[in-house]
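Hi, here's the filled form for the chain we discussed.

Project: internal
Contact: R.S.
Residues: 279
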Amino acid sequence: MALLEINNLEKSFDRPAVRDISLTLEKGRILCLLGPSGCGKTTLLRLIAGLEAPDRGNILFEGRDVTRKPVHLRQFGMMFQEFALFPHKNVFDNVAFGLQMLDLDAAQIEKRTTAMLDLTGLADLSQRSVSEISGGERQRVALARSLAPEPRLLMLDEPLGSLDRALRERLLVEIRTILKELMMTAIFVTHDQSEAFSIGDDIAVMNAGRVVQADTPESLYMTPKSVFVAQFLGFKNLLPARVEADGGIKTGLGTLHPAHADDGGAGSSVTLLLRPESA
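And the returned structure, exactly as it came back:
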């Protein structure tokens, strides 16, 4: 049984934002919601978190329906693009904040906070003001704070969007390593396909409120199921073609005979993807 199960989820505001989405997520895996701005990925994340209520469908976690369960009872963690750190608190106190809200005793808070600072490489900065550390270090503080209460599911909404590319690439590796070390189940929202392929065990590509393909990174790269998915992943060598009676694919460049083809039979119009590495 999947840890998280989303069934026929729908949500509209002034227009449909999430349309009939069904997904599953296994324990310990990282799911990336990938798509252009406005495709509904953040709305889907907010529905899972309980920050929005769906118009239709349900959400199961560990086999139990949590669709109408209050946010604070879901025990999910959230990490946003904006660091949302407390400027008047030092690094240690920022990480400890969520634990204090759980009314844990001082010894438990000290132990868990110290463990998270060690895990994220922030132990030497624990007494620094957050205004005195770099953007990458602040993002690690935000991650440590999200992980400290031991959430059952961690959701990350474009967490690296405000950082430069070199720093994003380094932090992606660090975040994946940390999540895997903790065996944390996570949902990572991004519009950047390189981020999704770097961190995700599974990727759900979204467009216009729908999941248009959900697959592993390898399968998604090798077999995009639509022109939109192929183009969004950066493929440009797309040719209109027609299926011939002998199974050949006729294009403006000539007739090709691919080893594997997913088509509708002779006479069907198809789109052919030519991979640069296959030339």
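Let me know if anything looks off before we file it.
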